[in-house]
Amino acid sequence: MIPRGKWLGYSPAGGAHRRSRKHLRGLQMEISQRRNANRIRFTFGEASLQYQQQDGSGSRSFSVDYVDISRDRQTLVERNDWLRNVGLLWLAIGAVMTAINWIGGNWGMPNFWIFIGAGCYAFYHFRSTPFTILPTPKATCW
Asked: pLDDT digit string (tens) for 21-73?
């Protein structure tokens, strides 16, 4: 049984229902995102946005008024460079070892490092993190 006056489900106002909207003034809504090593937090106030971003290279935070956020949008696609590098390295090692075997007269299957390297490189190519970039006078939000 649902208690009288309670609503089930998501509410951006932190659980308050529609009848108490007059009590929402001054509250903030916060959105946190995490993908791979990136952590981004948006805190929406009444007149400004507070932005916090943390990744493997460091962190930054700033606050910007809503009117200062540009309507122009850019896109950034981030990939894991380590997977690309190790995939190419294992492809090269596998190709050299396969060539040595074939020169020696062993016409068998290609070396297993080729398959591991191809898998890493394919994972690098298909696993990406797209970001929408919002330019502001202080810095860019993404």
From this structure: 444 456 778 888 887 777 888 888 888 888 888 887 888 888 888 888 778 88
DSSP percent split of the chain into helix, strand, coil, nearest 5? 35, 30, 35
- H/E run at residue 131: strand 129-135
β-sheet bridge partners, residue 132: 75
Task: Report whether 37 contacts 79 (CB < 8 A).
Answer: no
Range of the domain at 87: 80-126
91 plus 64 within the same structural domain: no
CA-nearest of 23, 17, 21 to 4 is 17
